[in-house]
Amino acid sequence: MCSVAGIHSFVLHLPPPRLLDALVRDLIHGLVSGFPDFHFAPTAIHHADSAVIIEARMTGTHRGLWAGLPPRGGKLDVPLACIFEFEDDRLVNEKVFFDFATVQQQLTST
Fold first, then answer.
1. Which of 23, 37, 76, 81 is most enclosed, with most CB atoms within 10 A?
2. HSE-up of residue 46 (Cα within 13 Å, Cβ side)
3. Which of 10, 60, 20, 19 is nearest to 39 (CA)?
4. Are the C-beta atoms of 80 and 60 separated by less than 8 Å?
5. What is the rounded CA–CA span in Å between residue 65 and residue 80?
């Protein structure tokens, strides 16, 4: 993870396919547990030679522990960008960018 002026980027280096299913399930479980009404809404999709870039908005109500933040009922509403990198037809990396300072402010200011 790196941080520049409050903007955090998270890089997910994908494991071998046999382990990927469990990691994806854990990620989704964490989001749905923390935000039972979690919603991911793509707003734009861009194509590059070896990547797909998705601009989106994620929303939800903080009802469970997530990213070390205890639930306080705050509303999450933040734009993000996802970059999916490919080698041929194989997904090799995913990067997700969003402003975590805004997320913290939204979730802790109730």
1. 76
2. 9
3. 60
4. no
5. 21
pLDDT at 1 over 60: no
Q: Is the pLDDT of residue 62 over 90?
A: yes
Whether residue 42 has pLDDT greater than 90: yes
Q: Could you tell me if 65 and 53 are in contact, meaning their C-beta atoms sit under 8 angstroms apart? A: no
The residue-averaged pLDDT of 36-56 equals 93
The overall longest dimension of the chain from CA atoms, in Å, is 46
Q: DSSP letter at 67?
A: T
Q: Do 39 and 28 form a contact (C-beta atoms < 8 A)?
A: no
Model confidence at 75: pLDDT above 50: yes
CATH 3.10.450.50 matches 36-110 = yes
Domain boundaries, the chain: 36-110
In whole numbers, what is the pLDDT of the chain averaged over residues? 82
Closest of 59, 109, 62 to residue 80, by C-alpha: 59
